Each structure stands twice: as C-alpha cells, then as structure tokens.
Amino acid sequence: MNALAARRRHPAAIALLILVGLLVTGAAYAALAPKPAQASTVSADQVQQGKKLFQANCSTCHGLQAEGSKDGPSLAGVGAASVDFQVGTGRMPMTRPDVQAPRKEKVVFSEEEIAAMGAYVASLAPGPAVPDQEFTDGSKGDPAKGGELFRVNCAMCHNASGAGGALTRGKYAPSLHNVSGKHIYEAMLTGPQSMPVFNDNNITPESKRDIVAFLHSVDKQQNVGGMALGRLGPVSEGLFIWVFGLGIMIGFAVWLGQKSA
Amino acid sequence: MSTAAHNASGAERLRANDPEHEAPVGGGLRKVGGVAGWVDDRTGAAKGVGYLMKKVFPDHWSFMLGEVAMYSMIICLVTGAFLTFWFVPSAGQVVYDGSYLPLKGVTMSEAYRSTLDISFDIRGGLIIRQIHHWAALLFIVAINVHMMRVFFTGAFRKPRELNWVLGAQLSMLALVEGFAGYSLPDDLLSGTGLRAAEGFMRSVPVVGSYLSYFVFNGPFPGESIIPRLYAVHVLLLPAILVGLFTAHIVLVAVQKHTQYPGPGRTNDNVVGFPVMPVYAAKAGGFFFIVFGVVALMSALVTINPIWAYGPYDPSPVTAGSQPDWYMGFADGALRLLPGFLEFTAFGFTFSFNVMIGAILLIPIMYGLITLYPFLEEWVTGDKREHHLLDRPRNNPTRTGIGMAGIASYCVLMFAAGNDIMAIKLHLSINDITNMLRLLFFVAPPVVFWVTKRICLSLQRRDRDLVLHGRETGRIVRTAEGRFYEQHEPLDPYTRWHLVQHEQHRPLELESGVDENGVAAPNARSQRLRAKLSRFYFNDRVEPVTPAELEAAHHDGHHVEAIEHQEPGGAPLVEVGSAPAGENPDTTEQRPGH
Ligand code: HEM
Asked: Where in the numbering of this chain does the Cytochrome c domain appear (chain A) (predicted)?
C-alpha cells in the first residue's frame, strides 16, 4: 500500500492510468457494443476458387476484377453477405437486364461455391460478412417485438403482413413469405437495390433476429379465418365479393325465378 | 301449382267485401287459430296483414337483388348486435395478453384488444366478425347492382322518383356506415383510413383544420374518435338506414312493383304471385339462402385479418393500405388527381388535389344519381305513370349514360388498386396511373357510344325478327325450282316482347317567343331541352307497327307457314294488344284504373 502511495506521483503513473482507462473502455465497448454477427473464417484456397467462379459467371456484367461495368455495379465493399444474399436467393447471376433482379427459386450455385465467391468479393474490400447463425435463427427471437419493429421500419414497403408492395416505375418490394432467416438478415444488412441498409446501429442483431422471428411466425400462422386471399387486404376481398358473392346470389335468384309457374 | 287464378281486380274486390267490424280476420288467417284472432281483437292488425298477404309480386331474378341487399342488412344488424357485447369502443391503451402470440406484450388500444379477443378468445367470435364484414360487403354490392337494375329498366320513372331518391340516400349512407365500422377495430389499416379522413377534412379551404379538430375533438388521433364513430355506427346510422329502408319498402308496396312487359302484363295491372303463400315462401327461402352463402363464405374465407395488420400507431404506414372496396372509387380518385392542384394563395394552402376526390366526389356523384330521374322526365316531357319496365336496349341513350357512369366508376375503383396491379402484373405504377388518368376521360364517351350502337343494333334485330321471323335453316325448293329459306314467324307471345314498347321522338323546339314577339323567359332552357332531347332520341329504331307487320306478311311465303302452324289463326293484326292472358299467376289491378 505504501509503495503504491509513494509512486502515485511517478511520471509514468499518468500514462499507465490512461492505458488502463483505454483498455477498460475498449473492453467494455467490445463487450457491450452491438457485435457484427460474423461467421466463418476464410482460406486463400477458397478465395482462389471464388475468383475463378466469379470470372466465369459474373464478370460479363461486374467486370473481371468486380470493378463494375455498364451492365452491373462494382462489388468492392459489398461484402460476402451481399453475395450470399444475391446468389443465395437466385437473384444473381441475372439472366436479363431488368429494373430489378427477381428472386428465383432455382439457385444456380452450391452453398460452397457461394461461400467461395463471397470470400473472393470480401477479399477485394472489407464489407459485411455472412451473419452468424446465432442471430438468424428466428426461434430465439421475440416475434411481438419484431412485429413492432417491422411495422415501423419495413411495412411501408413490404406491407404489414409482409405480402409485398409496389414501388415506383415497376420496382417492387417482394413478398417476404418463406424467406430464410439468413436471407432476411442479409437483406437488412446489405440493403439490396431500393431497400435501405439497416446497419447494426439502426437495428441491433438481436432486434434483427426478432424481425426474423416475426416474419417466420407469419409464415407459420395457420389462417385462422380461412383462406387468406393472398393476404392482399381489401382489394382481393372486394374482388371476391363481386365475383363469387354476387355470382352465387344471382345464380340462386335466377334459379328461384325459374321456379315460378 | 297452388296459385289461385284471381281475375283482374280480384284482390281489391275481396277486400271490398270484407265486413266492416265483426269477423275482422280474413279467411286465410282464421286457420292460424286463436292467437291471430286474439291479437287482431286488440290491434285490428288483420286488415293490414290481409292487405299485405294478398299483394301480388311479379317474379324475375333481377327483382331479387334488392332482397339480397335487405337480407344482408338484416344479417349485419343481427351480427352487429352480437359484436357489441364484447367490443370496447375505447382508445385507452392496454398491454395485450391474449392468446395470439405474435402480439403478446404489445401496447394497443382497448378497441383493438377487444377485436382480437372477439377473434381469438370468444367462442364463435371470429365467424360472427367475418359474417358481419362479408355481409357488409355484400350489402353494398347488392345495393349497387339493385340500383343498376332500376336504372337500366327505367323503374325510376313516375311515380317512383321519390323511391329512387330514397334509394340513392340509402346507398350513400351505407358507404358511410361501412366506413365507420371499418374504422372501429383500430388496426393499422383502419387507423390509416382515419388518418386519411383527417387529411380530407383538412383539405377543405379555410375551415379544414377547425373541422378536423371538431370531429376528432382535438388533434389526431385523440381519444374521442372511436367512441364517436361507435355511436354513429351502431346507433345513428343503423336507425336512419332502417327508417329509410322501411319507407322504401312501404313505397314499393303502395305503388306496387313494376313488371317486365309481357303478354297479359299491362301498365294497369301486376301479374305475379300473391305474398301468401308463394311469394312469402320464396322470399323466406331466399333469406336463408343468402344467410347460408354468407355464413359459408365467412367460414371459408378470411376477411380483414386485423391481427396481421397490427395495432394502429400514427408512425408506421403499410404498403397496400386500401379501404374496403366501396370506398375504392374515392381512394382511386385521390391517387389519380395530379399534385399540381395544390397551391398556395393569400397565405393559405389550397389542396384541391385532395379535396376534389375526398370531399366533393361523393356528394357530386350521389347528387347526379339522385337527380337523374328528374332530368330524364324533363327531357322527354313524359309525365305519365310507368309501371312497365323498359328493356335496356329500347332506350339506348339512357343505357349508354348508365354504362358510361359505370365505366368512370370502375376506372376510379381500379385506380385504388394501382399498386396491387403493379406488383401482380409486373408493370410500372407510374404507367398504370397515367393510363388510368387517360382512361378516366376516354373510357366514358367510348363506352357510351359502343353501348348505344349495340342497343340500336339489337333493336334492329328485333324488328327483323318480327318482320321476317326466325331463320329455320330449312331450305325449300318450290315447284318452279326456286330455293328459299323458310322463316318461321314468331309466336304472338314472343312477338309481344319485341313490339310492345313505344319510342320517344325528339321534342320540337317551341318558338321561343310569345305572341308579341317577346322572347319567352324560359327560351334558353327550352333550347337546351330540345338539344338534350335530340341527343337522347335522334338515333332511334321504331318498333314494328301492325301495318308494317301485315305488309311484311303479305309479300312472302310466310303466310302459309303461319296458317299451317296456327290453325286457330292468331290475330296477327293486333300486335298492339296483348294476347289474352291465360296466365296462371294472379293479376292485380293498379289503382285508378
Ligand atoms: C347495416 C349495415 C352495417 C354495415 C355495412 C356494417 C359494417 C361494419 C364493418 C365493415 C365493420 C368492421 C368489421 C371488422 O372487420 O372487424 C363493422 C364493425 C362493427 N360493427 Fe357494423 N355494420 C353494420 C351494422 C351494424 C350494427 C347495426 C351494429 C350494432 C348493433 C354493428 C356493430 C358493429 C361493431 C360493434 C363493430 C366492431 C367490432 C369488430 O370490429 O369486430 N354494425 N361494421
């Protein structure tokens, strides 16, 4: 105790204190700050394989070094998450120029190949990585909280039940039914096309997981009220009542009218 | 068939013979037994009931559209009463703790919570909610189609203009009633609808914000709007609707139903079934059919899944916010109106882009609908009573006007779904909107013209049929070796349908000056009237006259055929008069004849 007291005016003490302070805040920040939810490590082999795949399949539009061309944007800095999302949902490789690359059920590449291309694109410039499974698993989230977040941040484009909606000039926010947790997460992280980026400061990884939980709870919902009519709301209900409701009524009226004499 | 064949004035005469005081119960009712008699001794109701029982209603499927509306309204009333047991009309905030997990722990209004409870926690609640809402949609569909039937057949002509006016008000109030109900559950969609309504009120120049504060009792959304809407929805408007509807149906009974022209059916009688037993059985059966279909629909198809939309909160908006279909045309008008109609002047902002669609459209539309019978009466100068309906083709201009109106309504209604069309058809929403803007101006005239042409051609075909008969496809070779196709003349019953109507001619312009050469005060309006009359009736196809028909029959081979087919010799010349009614149905004389 005495020794410590004696040296507290030592010129090095101040520097030491600053060092400790920095360490503590650094550690605290590292512990408390929203963690980018990263997965997997990368090997040089993988990058090499990815480069080959990329040059064979993507370079016509994105350029040999992914530097971009008039047919496709530069991919520097979009990160592995973006590649995983775009290729994993079948959007890339794009088959023909259009206002928006549509989701395709048939994914051309295997998980491994996608990861390789992701690694290659990530090696060009740092960008968001493929999220850790911990945060893409909806069953760990809170759907009610996710619902609130979804209504505030996403419903204006994707509709309150995730049925999708129209944007200007032929663009659209797609339906979010049966999209995997990973792709939902990556969409928020990378903001494809007209969708804004929701980075980890906007919506923390835990909250993103809540949103995944909400969207998956919507998928799982049996339709308690009966057929859902595409969940398009009043438009499809109106169509239904005019076509079926009125049709059936007129059918019966004609039948009764004929029963006269 | 059990229908009695009363003669023309049977019903009236039966009633006239009723003894004045004792034995107030008519023959049919005595069988019901003591209860009816007991009631009648105290109320004297039998007379009225007997009168109603013997009323005659003509039969046609299109006359049942109004019934569909009536029954769906009744269904709404009954299911609505059920909903009031559990619905809590309050904007007070609570935390949800019911059985719908995705919303557990979310803060929401009591109105929304109670609607969730009705849907998930109250036995039978969801189906009743769905019946209530589907019946509401069907109600308004049926009113609309009923209105079209009345319009296209000219059933609104004297003496039924008053009933047309009542009907138009009913139809408009039904929209308001529906909108009020739609706004009650306080979900994201209905709240967005209310938000829009608040915007509409504010678009009224100068007083807009006062109006909105008055309705919402302060700034939007406030706590008052839901209880207020509730009072309007369950008390005020249903009372007015039921009152107007009663007046409507009483007028139908008093004026008697119109009928389609046909043999034995004249402007002076009604041919059909008496209320008891046939018509009542049919109508009662039809009620159960309507109820059954609505219940089935509600059991199978979701409507307004408010749980999927989430509770209302002024910050979020959802894509695909549409109102129920019947408000679609107003919403569509808003989507089509161009933004440049908003401008600032004298330090005020004038939002005509909103106001025209939201505040003016409905009164203008229903104003035009309400006034139409009076316009037509003025143009035709026809002040007679009409109890026989027009076939739509026989009044091409009216039919054209109606179709043009429907066309513009449809354009507006489709515009409300422009975003859904854009996604489903993979089109640009901007292109769709511009396209619909164009269509709003182009479609009505085109539809008018096409409809009118179709009507005129149909009339020509009718003339042709009457004059030359039906083509049989049988080719006959005469003794001299000539070939001709045998035409089979129409039987008098069919022919009657095609020749019974009269055709208006354009009104001649009165000179416009009085005997002293002074311009008559109404010269201008008379000129307008003559112009309109020409617009209506310049293009016309006259129905076949008896003389024409006779001439046609004397120059062909049809005569033999006719004589061959009808040995009895139908009175061919008398096309103008109905074939004698061997109608099994009851005929009732119209008053004053
Ligand atoms: C006659 C025509 C009527 C129409 C067109 C109509 C229409 C509607 C509509 C569209 C809703 C929204 C329902 C939903 O999806 O949740 C609604 C709700 C409601 N209506 Fe009506 N209604 C009518 C009559 C009545 C009457 C007479 C009552 C009460 C006696 C009533 C009581 C209610 C209540 C309590 C609600 C809110 C409950 C809920 O949303 O689940 N309605 N109405």
From this structure: 45-125, 141-219
